[in-house]
């Protein structure tokens, strides 16, 4: 943040207060209100944090009006097209593109942390077979703090580093185990000769009774989905991770908190909800009925996979995924997929409807990811776990960044209290 001389003057009851203004390297200026309460005795009010910067960060930048998403300055379409997930993980974690030797070293480290403690298998067996994989993953990731005691001391940079590697490496294993458990199949151990995405596909789809060969096209599509979901600055789950961490909680507990937040249908759960919606619509002739429902103020229905708090023009991740959906379905020979037909028509209808145009509602990343994942053979319940495993590096990078911030302190929002003022307790016989 640049230390400019800019400031704003706030007048309250005839008294004026100077508030410093900081200019970021990109994005709107930021008003520093940290001393506002101490000096003026007032709070600010911003439910949903629509105008509040909760931290400074150098990781990800979004320009929602222009549909821009940059990781450490690099545009997401370049990363999705030219890079791959583990390289993007390195970039997010360390701030620069690795040399070939650094990348090899990083890939080795991640690959060699993919197994989970054998005793953790018992946790899975405690869940009902019909549990949602997200329910299992929240529990198991939280339980990692009961197993990896040598990487829970947040004040030790080496332990923070090991915890980061463990989480990125083990999330695919845990997500695949959650899936295997819910379909009643044996867990498949990771294999070190496979890349990150291929390994995940194999852990999900291999069975002991026959060989499983990873299709490189699917592995590339999987990797691209991971890459597109890797980080998204201060979204709800990332802010949850930062808030949980601000109290000094251990990394596994913080990431479990992020996973819990991601699960909701307004956030990471939207990909499952979107595909279920497309299935419910079923055919293009029913689209007008659903568009009408989405516009009806008295109907809680929303078009899932549409709209975004920050993107008000286009979601650049959706643009890449739309292209991927076409490629993957064609390569799998399912280009006449009826869901894709419904999705494409729905997108066209919504993009030309004044309601969606005026409210700047565009397809988001979740609109196309479900179609690809379903074509790959994943059940809808695995869509959000795949989002969670992809986002783990983003959560971890943001979590790590907090420790280098001198202004870092426990997160503690204030409130606009509208309840009763002081009143005396009434004995039960007097009520
Ligand atoms: N369908 C119909 N109307 C909508 C939709 C939608 N998907 N999204 C927003 N609106 C309307 C909303 O009713 C409101 O109208 P009004 O001003 O008349 O009250 C207006 O648009 C603004 O909505 P909002 O809820 O105030 O906007 P927000 O920025 O708080 O919410 C959102 C953003 C993503 C939660 C919302 O657009 C939504 O619920 N979308 C569907 C769920 C979804 O696809 N979520 C995935 C987001 S991308 C992946 C991720 O980051 O997790």
UniProtKB/TrEMBL annotation:
UniProt-listed Gene3D superfamilies: 2.20.28.60, Citrate Synthase, domain 1 (1.10.580.10), Cytochrome P450-Terp, domain 2 (1.10.230.10)
Catalytic activity: oxaloacetate + acetyl-CoA + H2O = citrate + CoA + H(+)
GO biological process, one term: tricarboxylic acid cycle
Record keyword Metal-binding present: no
Gene Ontology cellular component list: cytoplasm
Active-site residue list: 308, 366
InterPro entries: Citrate_synth-like_lrg_a-sub, Citrate_synth-like_sm_a-sub, Citrate_synthase, Citrate_synthase_AS, Citrate_synthase_bac-typ, Citrate_synthase_sf, Citrate_synthase_typ-I
Pathway given in the UniProt record: Carbohydrate metabolism; tricarboxylic acid cycle; isocitrate from oxaloacetate: step 1/2
Entry-linked PROSITE patterns: CITRATE_SYNTHASE
Keywords: Transferase, Tricarboxylic acid cycle
MF GO annotations: citrate synthase activity
Pfam families, alphabetized: Citrate_synt
SUPFAM superfamilies assigned: Citrate synthase (SSF48256)
Family affiliation: Belongs to the citrate synthase family.
Protein name (record): Citrate synthase
Organism expressing this protein natively: Shimia gijangensis
